[in-house]
UniProtKB/TrEMBL annotation:
<dbReference type="GO" id="GO:0015179">
    <property type="term" value="F:L-amino acid transmembrane transporter activity"/>
</dbReference>
<feature type="transmembrane region" description="Helical">
    <location>
        <begin position="144"/>
        <end position="164"/>
    </location>
</feature>
<feature type="transmembrane region" description="Helical">
    <location>
        <begin position="26"/>
        <end position="48"/>
    </location>
</feature>
<keyword id="KW-0029">Amino-acid transport</keyword>
<keyword id="KW-1133">Transmembrane helix</keyword>
<comment type="similarity">
    <text>Belongs to the amino acid/polyamine transporter 2 family.</text>
</comment>
<dbReference type="InterPro" id="IPR013057">
    <property type="entry name" value="AA_transpt_TM"/>
</dbReference>
<dbReference type="GO" id="GO:0003333">
    <property type="term" value="P:amino acid transmembrane transport"/>
</dbReference>
<feature type="domain" description="Amino acid transporter transmembrane">
    <location>
        <begin position="55"/>
        <end position="381"/>
    </location>
</feature>
<dbReference type="GO" id="GO:0016020">
    <property type="term" value="C:membrane"/>
</dbReference>
<feature type="transmembrane region" description="Helical">
    <location>
        <begin position="361"/>
        <end position="382"/>
    </location>
</feature>
<keyword id="KW-0812">Transmembrane</keyword>
<feature type="transmembrane region" description="Helical">
    <location>
        <begin position="113"/>
        <end position="132"/>
    </location>
</feature>
<keyword id="KW-0813">Transport</keyword>
<feature type="transmembrane region" description="Helical">
    <location>
        <begin position="184"/>
        <end position="208"/>
    </location>
</feature>
<feature type="transmembrane region" description="Helical">
    <location>
        <begin position="69"/>
        <end position="93"/>
    </location>
</feature>
<keyword id="KW-0472">Membrane</keyword>
């Protein structure tokens, strides 16, 4: 009897450990997906509530049961486009970031083909992104996402250090502390692109052991709080350092011969490569559901994955301006996926009174999403973002000898020359 009790106890402990492991894995997957921005987690919880009300187990199924086949097709197109565009943007970032890292290696010719962005994108895809994307179970990426989160913390530390050491060397722009301009909606679109994870919420929810709203709420609260905190630190430290000169890709603001930032670029490139497979999971899931009834044989699983990765790679080799990609994807794909569709589904499915908290918040999210889509698209067209891809900032030039590159101990802060300022502007 004692032996049987011990066997049962050990079995229960193993089951408990496995549940904890899977829940932790889910937390890290969500953090990895929405890192760089803080999102009001109400929308994510609302999405799963809608799934429970309709008996759906995927975003597509939820919309299909709520708005029929037409809504299902619209959602499927958006749900495919958003992560697919994210994969393209990750490739662009990988090429831009790691090419600057390899250029700093001793004895390496900066013009060498093998350290160019195109070659790096292809190699990173073939060696790392594609093999990780071939996994069938998203829970297996939990450890990968944990590594990505740790590297993100290291990058944040570097940004904070450079905020302190560069502050006196970079002049503030005239409109530094203007809170918002007429085209601020463009920023909302980029933020939406950064923090959306609705497209893979059902996948992560399904990876939980005995998934419930309570467990999902706990995962989302922890993930969102961590992501929001990191996002605020990145945004604040980055902007305090460069103010009006801040680029869409913050690491583009730093000089190429800054070795500390070079290490940060390396960490960032690895982080992006490790995040890539999560987006590929979603694009493949959409194709599987729409075209194959949700079941892919091993051969088709490999074929579809390779086709998706190859398509994203080809496009990313032809496009090198990250800001425009993020803005358009944010206002056209992220806004409806985050604000409009989850709210509309819940409003149609829920039988609560109109003044119930969930319904009031759903109405507000619906209005915000519609405004963001319409106004945001107009602003993107009227105020396209300048792309300074691959260019050194004016304060990195050799003429501005006061700017510190490697060491700060023997430099005195001075303003850059008028010539440099005029050329940059």
């Amino acid at each position: 009897g004692e032996v049987d009790d011990r066997v049962v106890l050990v079995s229960e402990l193993k089951d408990k450990a496995e549940r904890t492991k899977r829940q932790s894995s889910a937390i890290f997957n969500v953090v990895n997906s929405i890192i760089g921005s803080g999102i009001i987690d109400f929308s994510l919880i609302l999405l799963i509530k809608g799934g429970i009300l309709s008996g759906a187990h995927s975003y597509q199924s939820l919309v299909n049961k709520t708005f029929g086949f037409a809504g299902y097709l619209v959602l499927s197109a958006l749900q495919f486009l958003y992560p697919f565009i994210a994969m393209i943007s990750y490739n662009i970032i990988t090429g831009d970031t790691l090419s600057k890292v390899f250029q700093r290696l001793p004895g390496v010719d900066p013009g060498n083909f093998f350290i160019g962005r195109h070659c790096i994108i292809v190699l990173a895809t073939v060696v790392f992104a594609l093999p990780l994307s071939l996994y069938r179970d998203i829970a297996k990426l939990g450890k990968v996402s944990l590594i990505s989160s740790i590297l993100t913390t290291l990058i944040l530390i570097i940004v904070i250090v450079r905020m302190v050491t560069l502050d006196l060397y970079i002049p503030q722009t005239e409109d530094t502390w203007v809170f918002a301009k007429s085209n601020a909606v463009q920023a909302a679109g980029v933020i939406s692109f950064a923090f959306i994870c609705h497209h893979n919420s059902f996948l992560v929810y399904g990876s939980l052991e005995e998934p419930t709203i309570a467990k999902w709420t706990q995962v989302i609260h922890v993930s969102v709080l961590v992501s929001a905190f990191i996002s605020m630190l990145f945004a604040t430290c980055g902007y305090l350092t460069f103010t009006g000169y801040t680029q869409g890709d913050l690491l583009e603001n730093y000089c190429r011969n800054d070795d500390l930032v070079t290490f940060g670029r390396f960490c960032y490139g690895i982080t992006v490569i490790l995040t890539y497979p999560i987006e590929c999971f979603v694009t493949r899931e959409v194709i599987s559901t729409v075209c194959f009834g949700g079941n892919l044989t091993t051969v088709f699983h490999i074929a579809v994955t390779v086709a998706i990765v190859a398509g994203a790679t080809i496009i990313s080799l032809a496009i090198d301006c990250l800001g425009i990609v993020l803005e358009l994807s944010g206002v056209l794909c992220a806004a409806p996926l985050i604000f409009i569709i989850p709210s509309a589904c819940y409003l149609k499915l829920s039988e609560e009174r109109w003044n119930h908290f969930d319904k009031i918040m759903s109405y507000l999210m619906l209005i915000v999403g519609a405004i963001m889509m319409g106004v945001g698209f107009i602003m993107v067209v009227m105020h396209p973002q300048d792309c300074s891809h691959g260019k050194e900032m004016f304060y990195c030039s050799s003429e501005n000898s006061s700017f510190p590159n490697i060491s700060f101990s023997h430099f005195q802060p001075t303003k850059p020359s008028v010539l440099n300022m005029s050329a940059f502007q």
